[in-house]
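$ ./design --mode recover --in tokens.txt
reading tokens...
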């Protein structure tokens, strides 16, 4: 018996797992698996491990072997959290590619990819889910102890719970409480996305009888004439449409909300609350639930299918309002019919909620939504449903590329030119459009890129036949592109016809639109009241104490704000430098536009849509609801208004100052200006009415403005490409930038010079810099940027990146590097 036990002991395997920790460490760490956990160790599962002296982390098993690490003694893993893997092998492959391509670590990719509830660490915060009622008698002793502690204290860290229970293995207990929906686990709980609700009115069937209705009218006309008006208006509207919206009934009848409420209380009317689109699409809208493609759309769809036979990526270049979404829907239907999954990427999920509703009409519960407005519990739920293939279609922002797809057949990137697809901080600094192409390739899927103003890189790839190219040159339904009028601010200032920041042309067009009960959108790409506060005597300007930028005055807080680090200070009434009281506001943002327009047009209903007005819970949805319900006459906004807005009654677009876009010191300035101006212009006249766009500028003869007027993307492209080629910019060259940061500017200078010289030893004149960026100090760190340009042909970028990693590692081992931060950014723009 003893001999048999000795043989068993000799034959049993000792397993080691290499894990990805949610930390920015350059190598993965190896742990030993306790023998009793051998069967549970599977790639993609989460394990609890100790890293460092005392910290616990949730790590992901990336590989399993029987080889112990050579340089250190492997610690034992503490616990295996999952019965089945939460991360697929394809995802791990994708993470590895992202880390290699974007020159970061797999731990940084894991941090970006996993919802925070799936990556518990010692510092992770745990809170009670106050919205959920549970039976405490169903909890075990340890679960009960945690919930009692959270009743007394609003939040606890995992470390606190370890101390509370007196044991290290608390992760499985927290996992159990999380799955029961009793606790919320998150570094930060985001606001909960709520669907748009709308109230519809129907008539009590009793009053469908003419005699009963006549009798009711006689009573109401004597006692409540406003209610009689409301009833009469309802009957008129109900002949024209299937359902009558409550807000439409109030507006048409002039009866007021109280009259409708009284009729509901008397059970003359019934009110029904429905989930509807925010941007003018209703569930029973024939054009959505049963649309027919136009001839141009059908031709574009056929071309796309044809290209997909030979190419993996196709660009759909269609003018604004050309009906690209309907083509997407047809392709999604075809892919879902084959049983494969679809990912539909959008740059601003909150501004395109109508697409969610449109897709749900077709695909019902098989469509999932994933974005930052979901709290952590909801994100985990979506993650699990994608993992179990319950969702066939997922609609989401850039982070949805990290979801655990099994068989991705089609990936749509809408508005592929948008800069919000690029992640700038923290690492990985990836571009979701480019990463999506690699992801689709891993699954053997296809990619459709859609835009009215494609990025030059994408258009170049389409013109050189790397991608397929499909064009749509006409708007859906034969609606004409908006008229564009350019107005010289200089000329109107000389003629003294300007009113505040508004030219006489824009004022007249706004007045005409409002008289016709139409709506206006004004675009000013700067938030706040005034970008600069300046002393008229000594020219003193308040600056941020942490960043090298002037502070912006915000009237609603009466404070000066830094838009980089969030620092705020009181607005001085006396110049701190010379004591003068002559302080002036220079420039203007959306807040000042709103303030001055309220004086010029006191009776007009104004609203502002920028980062300041959309921070709070559901504030963005409220603005969009009010615009759709015509409770807003003029909407003033930053670039948020250029993305995805689609309203029937917006007929005038005013661009307050186009020069702030055109004069930006960046090689992409003309491309970005054209895209922004064309996209903002595209919000006008989308449903049967030709809109008008007024562009105010000091430079009406600027080439880009002429190209916007003529909607001549091709001329812009060919002109800019000549310059790109001459000055070695993308798409002809690849760019990798490296930021070096330090709190001491003199030390930074020496570090940057040394580091640049080391790079030049390998890459010669491909290295440019070091240079100070436009804002050379952020959050007390001074910055120097080094740029490397590599030819597309004849240079191995993989080898170049490996060399750069070596130079960074070598630099970080020197004493000179002390206190520095080195941040590579691949394809930075």
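writing sequence...
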């Amino acid at each position: 018996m003893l001999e048999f036990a000795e043989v068993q002991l000799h034959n049993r395997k000792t397993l080691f797992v290499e894990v990805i920790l949610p930390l920015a460490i350059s190598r993965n760490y190896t742990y030993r698996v306790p023998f009793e956990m051998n069967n549970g160790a599977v790639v993609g599962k989460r394990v609890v491990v100790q890293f460092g002296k005392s910290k616990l982390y949730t790590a992901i098993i990336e590989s399993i072997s029987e080889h112990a690490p050579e340089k250190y003694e492997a610690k034992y893993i503490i616990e295996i959290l999952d019965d089945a893997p939460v991360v697929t092998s394809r995802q791990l492959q994708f993470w590895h590619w992202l880390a290699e391509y974007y020159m970061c670590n797999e731990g940084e990719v894991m941090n970006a990819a996993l919802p925070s509830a799936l990556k518990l660490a010692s510092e992770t915060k745990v809170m009670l889910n106050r919205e959920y009622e549970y039976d405490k008698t169903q909890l075990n002793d340890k679960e009960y102890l945690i919930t009692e502690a959270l009743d007394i204290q609003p939040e606890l860290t995992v470390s606190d719970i370890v101390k509370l229970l007196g044991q290290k293995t608390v992760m499985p207990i927290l996992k159990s409480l999380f799955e029961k929906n009793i606790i919320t686990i998150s570094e930060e709980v985001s606001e909960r996305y709520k669907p748009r609700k709308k109230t519809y009115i129907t008539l009590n069937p009793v009053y469908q009888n003419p005699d009963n209705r006549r009798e009711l009218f006689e009573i109401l006309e004597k006692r409540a004439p406003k209610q009689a008006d409301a009833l009469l208006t309802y009957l008129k509207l109900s002949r024209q449409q299937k359902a009558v919206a409550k807000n439409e009934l109030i507006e048409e009848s002039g009866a007021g909300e109280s009259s409708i409420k009284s009729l509901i209380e008397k059970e003359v009317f019934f009110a029904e609350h429905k989930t509807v689109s925010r941007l003018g699409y209703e569930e029973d809208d024939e054009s959505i639930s049963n649309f027919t493609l136009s001839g141009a759309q059908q031709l574009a769809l056929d071309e796309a299918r044809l290209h997909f036979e030979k190419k993996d990526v196709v660009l759909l270049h269609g003018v604004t309002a050309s009906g690209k979404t309907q083509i997407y829907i047809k392709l999604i239907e075809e892919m879902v019919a084959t049983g494969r999954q679809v990912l539909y990427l959008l740059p601003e999920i909150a501004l395109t909620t109508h697409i969610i509703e449109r897709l749900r009409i077709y695909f019902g519960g098989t469509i999932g939504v994933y974005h930052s407005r979901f709290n952590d519990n909801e994100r985990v739920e979506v993650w699990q449903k994608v993992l179990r293939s319950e969702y066939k279609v997922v609609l989401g922002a850039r982070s949805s590329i990290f979801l655990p797809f099994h068989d991705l057949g089609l990936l749509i990137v809408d508005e592929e030119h948008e800069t919000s697809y690029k992640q700038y901080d923290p690492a990985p600094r990836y571009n979701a459009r480019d990463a999506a192409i690699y992801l689709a390739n891993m699954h053997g899927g296809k990619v459709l890129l859609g835009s009215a103003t494609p990025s030059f890189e994408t258009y170049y790839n389409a013109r050189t036949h790397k991608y397929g190219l499909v064009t749509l040159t006409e708007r859906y339904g034969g609606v004409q592109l908006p008229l564009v009028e350019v107005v010289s601010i200089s000329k109107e200032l000389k003629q003294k016809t300007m009113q505040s920041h508004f030219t006489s042309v824009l004022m007249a067009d706004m007045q005409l639109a409002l008289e016709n009960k139409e709506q206006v959108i004004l675009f000013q790409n700067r938030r706040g009241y005034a970008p600069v506060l300046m002393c008229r005597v000594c020219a003193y300007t308040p600056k941020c104490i942490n960043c090298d930028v002037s502070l912006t005055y915000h009237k609603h807080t009466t404070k000066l704000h830094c838009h980089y680090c969030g620092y705020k200070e009181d607005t001085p009434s006396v110049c701190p430098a010379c004591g003068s009281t002559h302080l002036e506001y220079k420039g203007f943002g959306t807040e000042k536009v709103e303030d001055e327009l309220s004086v010029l047009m006191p009776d007009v209903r104004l609203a502002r849509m920028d980062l300041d007005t959309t921070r709070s819970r559901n504030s963005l949805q409220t603005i969009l609801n009010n615009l759709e319900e015509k409770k807003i006459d003029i909407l003033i906004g930053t670039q948020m208004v250029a993305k995805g807005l689609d309203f029937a009654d917006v007929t005038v677009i005013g661009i307050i100052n186009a020069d702030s876009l055109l004069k930006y010191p960046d090689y992409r300035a003309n491309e970005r200006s054209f895209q922004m101006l064309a996209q903002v212009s595209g919000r006008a006249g989308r449903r049967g009415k030709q809109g008008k766009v007024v562009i105010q500028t000091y430079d009406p003869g600027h080439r880009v403005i002429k190209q916007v007027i003529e909607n001549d993307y091709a001329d812009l492209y060919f002109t800019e490409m000549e310059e790109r080629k001459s000055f070695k910019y993308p798409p002809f060259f690849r760019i990798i930038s490296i930021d070096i940061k330090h709190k001491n500017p003199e030390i930074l200078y020496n570090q940057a010079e040394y580091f640049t010289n080391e790079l030049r030893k390998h890459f010669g004149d491909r290295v440019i810099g070091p240079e100070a960026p436009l804002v050379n100090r952020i959050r007390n760190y001074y910055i120097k940027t080094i740029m490397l340009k590599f030819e597309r042909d004849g240079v191995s970028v993989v080898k170049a990146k490996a060399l750069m990693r070596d130079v960074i590692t070598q630099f970080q081992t020197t004493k000179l590097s002390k206190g520095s931060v080195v941040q590579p950014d691949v394809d930075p723009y």
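exit 0
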